[in-house]
């Protein structure tokens, strides 16, 4: 009676592309380079525009898609289960930040998955072959492919929906399959593929050369000495070091990540850690997770290849999101076992990290929490007097790794006061930053701000109630995307890595610390 009921079936509403609602497509030269690499396939490089009717697809594009889906159904048992067991109960619908932010029904995880599931029913089930639309099936058409492209890139694979699914369906895995199938016909976005290309070519997302990477770290060493009087002297590509340290490349070249990186190095100096950086595996982040399983495997392998070349005992990883999902959930079946490395053991406390017995890689937060627990570092909370914080559980460390208590334990020991956001927005139920999985690109800024609204709203609640001014997290993408999100929705709040707050609070023997009213961010 109000006219609010839809007058068309969802299958009859086409995807409409216009400036601002889609990310730019992959540059042909990036795709050509990647397609030339052994073990991966990214065909059909060409210049094209989603707004055009003709996407310049291969003549047999439909056959490629259906064959690709058949191959993945055969290889990934989970995909077939996810295709078959959904009862469309809608428990996931209002849990997705993209649906909450945009109001678009096709951003409900159940309907986003239905974009693929409908084609699966048509092509791979008896009911679909016999009854077609009556059984929920539909033909694979150019219009369907365009829907896939639009909504596969309006999902950050954060997996919040899976927490609430009574069947445990992982819609992020479905999004990953959608993106893989799109790549089979050359339909990807540049903000994913250029970082992948750079990582494969130089070892990091930004395409920094070994010399530039080393130089950036050394600039941060100068800043540390200027602020604290402590000279840190990291080594690079040093064979025989006990630990290989790998962190997202954003930590060495961009604010606010550089302050987190300074915190890492101050911590390592305080305990005398025998570690080295690699200028070739100079990126922890793995954008292969957002493109294809084969690419994810290839990029993950570089870290372990460097660990083997340098002869280290184990790997310590910095604050990153998707690096840790790949390590924690996929490493063993992709690149393992890592028999050439030892089960990580802290040289400062003697703690053996049994949880890393297979991957041989330890998260900086669990490493730091262990140091604090055993009294191996001295901390002065008053040095963070300028920070009144809340904590954002980054999706992958929280939901994919179970990293829930360690960052909180650290914050309890480095801050005088910090406050949790509402219970239904943290820990396993944490809201995403809204711009992960290669969506932190400027051409879709409005979409990003809409998708990030649920997280921003929770921060605003704590700001209004407690007057917080800092949002702490343990992810490099979060530090970048949340900074923009806060500037738009809660401009009074800045974003900081947990290790930055540790660096602020550290008391190191022989220091000649200046009056740092904003910690390591203080301008002198």
Quickly list its features.
524 residues; mainly alpha; four-stranded parallel beta sheet; single chain; 21 helices
Task: Kindly describe this structure.
Helices cover 45% and strands 6% of the residues. With 524 residues, it is mainly alpha-helical. Strands 2-1-3-4 form a 4-stranded parallel beta sheet. Helix 7 crosses helix 9, helix 13 packs across helix 14 (322-334) and helix 17 runs parallel beside helix 21 (498-505). The longest helix has 19 residues, at 210-228. The termini are far apart. The mean pLDDT is 96.
What's the topology here?
Layout: H1 28-35, H2 61-75, H3 77-85, H4 97-102, H5 109-124, H6 126-131, H7 142-152, H8 160-164, H9 171-183, H10 190-202, H11 210-228, E1 243-246, H12 257-271, E2 275-277, H13 293-310, E3 314-317, H14 322-334, E4 361-363, H15 364-373, E5 378-379, E6 389-391, H16 395-400, H17 405-414, E7 418-419, H18 445-451, H19 453-466, E8 470-473, H20 476-489, E9 494-497, H21 498-505, E10 506-507
Parallel strand pairs: 1-2, 1-3, 3-4, 6-7, 6-8, 8-9
Antiparallel strand pairs: 5-10
Briefly summarize what is shown.
Helix 14 (322-334) links the parallel strand 3 (314-317) and strand 4. The chain is 45% helix and 6% strand. It is mainly α and 524 residues long.
């Amino acid at each position: 009676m109000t006219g609010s009921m839809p007058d068309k079936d969802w299958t009859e509403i086409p995807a409409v592309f216009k400036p601002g609602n889609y990310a730019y497509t992959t540059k042909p030269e990036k795709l050509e380079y990647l397609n030339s690499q052994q073990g991966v396939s990214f065909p059909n490089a060409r210049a094209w525009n989603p707004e055009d009717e003709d996407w310049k697809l291969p003549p047999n594009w439909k056959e490629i898609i259906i064959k690709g889906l058949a191959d993945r159904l055969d290889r990934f048992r989970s995909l077939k289960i996810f295709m078959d067991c959904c009862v469309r109960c809608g428990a996931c619908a209002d849990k997705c930040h993209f649906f909450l932010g945009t109001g678009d029904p096709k951003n409900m995880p159940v309907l986003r998955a239905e974009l693929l599931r409908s084609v699966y029913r048509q092509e791979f089930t008896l009911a679909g072959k016999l009854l077609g639309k009556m059984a929920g099936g539909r033909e694979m058409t150019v219009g369907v492919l365009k829907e896939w492209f639009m909504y596969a890139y309006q999902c950050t694979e954060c997996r919040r929906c899976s927490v609430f699914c009574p069947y445990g369906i992982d819609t992020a895995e479905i999004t990953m399959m959608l993106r893989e199938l799109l790549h089979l016909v050359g339909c990807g976005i540049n903000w994913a593929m250029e970082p992948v290309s750079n990582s494969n070519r130089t070892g990091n997302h930004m395409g920094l050369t070994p010399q530039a990477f080393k130089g950036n770290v050394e600039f941060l060493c100068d800043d540390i000495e200027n602020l604290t009087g402590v000279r840190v002297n990291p080594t690079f590509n040093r064979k025989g070091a006990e630990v290989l340290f790998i962190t997202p490349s954003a930590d060495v070249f961009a604010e606010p990540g550089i302050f987190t990186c300074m915190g890492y190095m101050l911590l390592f100096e305080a305990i005398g850690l025998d570690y080295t950086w690699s200028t070739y595996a100079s990126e922890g982040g793995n954008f292969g997770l957002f493109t294809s399983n084969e690419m994810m495997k290839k990029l993950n392998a570089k870290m372990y290849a460097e660990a083997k070349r340098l002869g280290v005992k184990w790997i310590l990883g910095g604050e990153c999101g998707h690096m840790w999902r790949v390590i924690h959930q996929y490493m063993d079946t992709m690149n393992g076992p890592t028999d050439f490395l030892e089960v990580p053991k802290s040289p400062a406390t003697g703690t053996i990290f049994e949880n890393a017995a297979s991957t041989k890689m330890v998260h900086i937060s669990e490493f730091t929490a262990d140091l604090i627990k055993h009294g191996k570092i001295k901390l002065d909370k008053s040095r963070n007097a300028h920070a009144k914080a809340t904590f954002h559980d980054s999706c992958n460390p929280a939901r994919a790794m179970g990293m829930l208590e360690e960052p909180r334990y650290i914050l309890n020991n480095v801050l005088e006061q910090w406050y949790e956001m509402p219970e239904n927005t943290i820990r396993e139920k944490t809201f995403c930053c809204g711009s992960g999985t290669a969506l932190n690109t400027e051409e879709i800024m409005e979409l990003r701000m809409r998708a990030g609204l649920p997280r921003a709203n929770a921060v605003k609640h704590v700001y209004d109630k407690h007057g917080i001014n800092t949002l702490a997290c343990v992810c490099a993408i979060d530090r970048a995307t949340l900074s923009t999100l806060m500037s738009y929705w809660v401009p009074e709040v800045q974003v900081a890595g947990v290790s930055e707050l540790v660096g602020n609070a550290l008391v190191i023997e022989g220091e000649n610390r200046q009056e740092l009213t904003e910690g390591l961010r203080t301008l002198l």
